Amino acid sequence: MLVTGGAGFIGSNLVRFLRRERPDWTVVNLDKLTYAGNAESLSDLREDPKHVFVHGDIAEAKLIDRVLREHAVEAVLNLAAESHVDRSILGPAIFVETNIAGTQVLLDCARQAGVKRFVQVSTDEVYGSLGATGQFTESSPLRPSSPYSASKAAADLLVLAYGHTFAMDVIVTRCSNNYGPYQFPEKLIPLMIANALEGKKLPVYGDGRQVRDWIHVEDHCRALLLALEKGRSGEVYNVGSDNEWPNLQIVTRLLQVLGKGRELIEHVKDRPGHDRRYAIDASKARSELGWTPRIGFAEGLQATIDWYLQNRGWWERVRTGEYRSYYERNYGSR
Ligand code: NAD
Ligand code: TYD
Questions:
Q1: In sequence order, what E strands does 217-283 have?
Q2: Local confidence band at 233 (pLDDT 50, 70, 90 cut-offs)
Q3: Which of 242, 263, 286, 323 is the most exposed place for a label (fewest CB within 10 A)?
Q4: Domains along the chain?
Q5: Tens digit of each residue's pLDDT (9 = 90 or more) over 264-281
Q6: Global pTM?
Q7: C-alpha dihedral (153, 158, 161, 166), degrees to nearest 10
Q8: Ligand 1 binding pocket, CB closer than 6 Å
Q9: Cα three-residue angle 164-170-171, rounded to 5 degrees
Q10: Ligand 1 nearest atom to the CA of residue 239, by list position
């Protein structure tokens, strides 16, 4: 198994999940360790002989080719990406390089090495924004509105085109907003928890009434494993757990649980092109893959808050930038 982006939020949870659920599998984890990649998120897997970490870029064909052949990789789960909408507004170029061109290189290499299945981990954001009602289905039109979601939509289309043109076995999954441990504190939930704990303001974009459909990262990981094992080639599967919340309600709830006052909330200028509402219809994944989310929001959010309370060092090192030297400090002498 090759997992790309395995030092990121979902990737590190996925690698741990796969090692637990499929102990016979060797998981090769290839990650460029961009600002979002954190080798410290994998420190408990350091002694695991069936977890092989490779520091590298999905856009480097020679390296990918070598890794696929050296480890006789049977399947690829592509999570490597630039993932933050706000960064894509500040600088779209790297989103094109990694999310589109990188995926195309990975597809070529996988095809040439005879990889049996390629799973592209995508997002509901490729469908654009919803009004007050309705949900995205797999046949909803692609109407991405940010450079991030446009780059993910382009990658999805390339993956499906490789399936169609070259008879490659490919699957695309499109999941809603994830939350859980090891999420980089630039995304809404961990940012708000960390700011509240440090007594800083909580920056809510615009009126804060934008709606996101939240899923615990472990439920997403379970869906990815099922898609890999049971999905039909060439198909797209939406993943989401029917859990819509306006941003302001999430922020208020986090403050309540942390025992902090609402005066920390600060309404700031809205994100340009901000999508108003996402909601996912995951009935295809439920019926075809037998997937159901297991983690309720109250339970999952509490566990996530507890994790950030208990792992303050992890996110503090991320916020100070200290985590960036962790790889050298930890692996440099090995
Ligand atoms: P993340 O930003 O936390 O992690 C991305 C990882 O990819 C990092 O470890 C980074 O170092 C690595 N990476 C970046 N460029 C790379 C490259 N060129 N080569 C190799 N590695 C590279 O992101 P995440 O939230 O864990 O998201 C993972 C994937 O899931 C992304 O493809 C994202 O689009 C998708 N997704 C995320 C969500 C969400 O809510 N977070 C929802 C649906 C889909
Ligand atoms: P984010 O976690 O960036 O995910 P995405 O934009 O991919 O859905 O943001 C979730 C929601 O929270 C989104 O509507 C933007 C909003 N938001 C804020 O209001 N303030 C913030 O500081 C951040 C990072 C996000």
A1: 236-239, 244-246, 265-268
A2: very high
A3: 263
A4: 2-183+215-243+273-296 (3.40.50.720)
A5: 999 999 999 999 999 999
A6: 0.98
A7: -160
A8: 4-5, 7-11, 30-34, 36-37, 57-59, 79-83, 98, 102, 121, 123, 152, 175, 177-178, 184
A9: 120
A10: 43
